Amino acid sequence: MRNNLCFPRILTIVFLLCPLLLAGQIKYITVRFEDHSDWWSVLNESFKSPHSKRLDKDLDSKNFEIEGFSLDYDLSFQSVQNKLGHADIVERGDASTGRQQICYVSEQNPDTHLIFEKGELNVVLYMIAGGKHWDGDALCAKSAAVTASTSTASGLRVGMTDSELETILGKPDLSTNDKLIYFRELKKKTSPSELAKLRSEHSEMSENEFQETYDSYYLDIYIEARFISSKLTYLAVSKAEGD
Length: 243
Fold this sequence. Notes:
Oligomer: single chain
Radius of gyration: 21 Å
Number of helices: 5
C-alpha cells in the first residue's frame, strides 16, 4: 500500500522535472576541492607566469574558438553542457586563484581531455593528451564530441608538431626544448554592440565619462604548448580582460 501511495508522487516529480530538463534550466552540481592538484591549470596557485615583456601583436580569433564556442568571459558552462553533455562543475581556490572547471574526456581516446575554466578575470581552454591524474578527474564526463582530432577553428590540436603549431601561431615569444609560449597584452576597441549594451546599463554617465571608461579595454593573452617527442600533449589558451 505504501508503494502505491508513493508512485503518484514519483510520477509528479518526474513530470515537473521533464520540462526543466528539456528547457536546459536545471543547474548541475558544483563540487568543491580544497587542493591544487589540477597541475594543468594556469590559474593554479603553483603556476609561475613567465617574467617577460608582453608583445602587443594580436592573434587570429579562430585560435579562441572550439566546438562552436568562442573563448569569451560570457561563455556559459550551461551552453557547454547543452552541447557536450552533462558534466559537474569543479571549484577550487579563492579570490585571484578562484576557478571553476568543467571537463570532458574522449569516449574513443580516454587520455584526451577538453577542459573549460573560468577565474576572476580569465577564461581558459585546455586540450590535454595523457599527463598525470588529478583530484576530480573522475568527474570528467565522457563525450563523443571530444576526439584526438578535436581542434580550435584555426587547427590547434593535440598530436600536432611544434612546426605545425608555429605555422598557425607564428614565432613564439618564449621557448624551450619542449614548450612554446605566446604572451600578449593588447589594447582593443570595444565593439559597437558591447558599447550599446554598456550604455544602456550606465545611463547615469556623461558621454565623455562613458567613452573614457568603456571605449577601449586591455586584453591579456597567454598560450602555452607542451610537447613530448615533438608532439603536442598539452595546450592552454587563456584570455583575461583588464581595465
